[in-house]
Specification:
alpha+beta, 6-stranded antiparallel beta sheet, endopeptidase fold (from Nostoc punctiforme), 431 residues, SH3 type barrels, 27 strands
Length: 431
């Protein structure tokens, strides 16, 4: 058994899961792999304190050795850069083989050893890959996930699931009878999974930049955003410390950020000096069985709420449509909402406008939908009235204890109390 190092990289893109006949999207919460700023490779800061003389004397792509004192204009950035060095360098910046890879603990996970950091600093050609102990899942098959177990065996109890293109930290490598297993940590799940479902090292690093979501954290306040990757182009806006933006690309000592949309809905992007932006990559991660059930329940609740809102909106639309015809005439046997209709012709015409087919008479309409208690009626439900056990009238409930209906020749179409006479039953045809 080989004990390996831990990184702060964990993370799972949770594919849609079929539950019954309904598909639920299962996005796992994300954790992040941070990309520390490169070495002071861009000496000019493009910061608000920068003077014209300093801009002219220092190129933004000029490398500054770590032992060289930072220029005064960037003095305030030294603390931010120091803080940034307390994050694992993974992602775009790691591809440059920077000589000062710096790492530290994040959350409950351990840091890469300080010896590894010193090794990286001592090698000007190639730093150890920060992805050495980071694995990215590559799952093929209909399920698009693989189970995480409590032992390095297919007989182990299932603790959770990791979906395709998720990240995990490798804690141990176990050689079992059926092949190599990794003990991994991802999200809230610690367990075992067969090594064949992961890629690691350089392959994982290359894949991470394709599937990860890259963001930029503004380290220094007053950071100028320019139209081009240089200090001579126009300034679009100014960013402030603590703000986060999506990274579009990194090039020539600058980071291109997505700034959202303008007033006309057009996407806005701009460039900032890279030493003032902490770039990091976010992955999705594994989920436990408990988290999965909570997500399924939450997805169902949201779907039910959306369906209820949709029905409520439709019921409101039915009521609004019916009210347009208030004051139009009552005509026995009629079916015109404008020129004259009787009670059943009115309800048939209103609900028919929304695609609900009703019978012609009030007595027949009482059997067209689902019976509901009179104390639970909703707008758009049909209210029926009877005499001697025989239904003779129908109205449309509009809420607040009121109905709209074709009343009689004297009143035409109008609104009255639901209890203008005693109702006998109610039917829901909207669902």
């Amino acid at each position: 058994m080989r004990k390996t190092r831990k990184l702060v990289a964990t993370g799972c893109i949770c594919a849609a899961m079929a539950v019954g006949m309904t598909a639920f999207a299962m996005p796992g919460a994300t954790s992040l792999v941070t990309v520390a700023p490169k070495t002071a490779s861009s000496a000019s800061s493009d910061h608000t304190e920068q003077t014209q003389e300093e801009t002219a004397s220092m190129s933004e792509t000029q490398a500054v050795p770590e032992t060289t004192a930072a220029p005064e204009t960037a003095a305030s950035d030294q603390g931010a850069a120091g803080a940034a060095s307390n994050k694992v360098t993974v992602g775009a910046a790691s591809l440059t083989a920077a000589s000062n890879v710096s790492v530290a603990a994040s959350g409950p996970e351990e840091a890469v050893s300080q010896a590894a950091v010193q090794m990286a600093a001592a090698s000007p050609t190639k730093a150890p890959s920060p992805y050495e102990d980071v694995a990215v899942s590559q799952v093929n098959g209909d399920d698009d996930y693989v189970n995480i177990r409590d032992a390095a065996s297919v007989d182990g109890e299932i603790l959770g699931k990791i979906y395709n293109n998720c990240a995990a930290t490798i804690e141990e490598t176990v050689e079992a009878e059926d092949g190599t297993w990794y003990k991994i940590h991802s999200g809230s799940v610690d367990g075992y999974i067969k090594a064949e479902y992961f890629v690691t090292g350089e392959e994982a690093e290359e894949l991470a930049l394709e599937i990860g979501k890259m963001f930029g954290y503004v380290e220094e306040g007053g950071l100028r955003v320019r139209t081009e990757p240089n200090t001579e182009s126009d300034i679009i806006t100014t960013l402030w410390a603590g703000e986060k933006y999506t990274v579009v690309e990194q090039a020539d000592g600058f980071v291109k950020l997505s700034l959202g949309d303008d007033d006309d809905g057009n996407a806005v992007t701009g460039y900032v000096a890279e030493q003032y932006v902490q770039v990091y990559v976010k992955f999705d991660k594994a989920i436990s069985l408990e988290e999965e059930q909570e997500m399924i329940a939450e997805a169902r609740r949201r779907e039910e709420e959306a369906e209820a809102a949709k029905k409520s909106s439709k019921r409101d639309a039915v009521v609004a449509y019916a009210k347009q015809f208030i004051g139009n005439p009552y005509v026995w046997g009629g079916g015109s909402l404008t020129n004259g209709t009787d009670c059943s012709g009115f309800t048939r015409g209103v609900l028919g406008h929304f695609g609900y087919g009703l019978s012609r008479t009030s007595r027949a309409q009482a059997g067209d939908g689902r019976q509901v208690p009179l104390n639970s009626v909703e707008p758009g439900d049909l209210i029926f009235y009877a005499s001697g056990g025989r239904i003779f009238h129908v109205a449309l409930y509009i809420g607040g204890g009121r109905v709209i209906h074709a009343i009689d020749e004297a009143h035409g179409i109008g609104i009255s109390s639901m209890y203008w006479t005693t109702p006998c039953s109610a039917v829901d045809v909207i669902g």
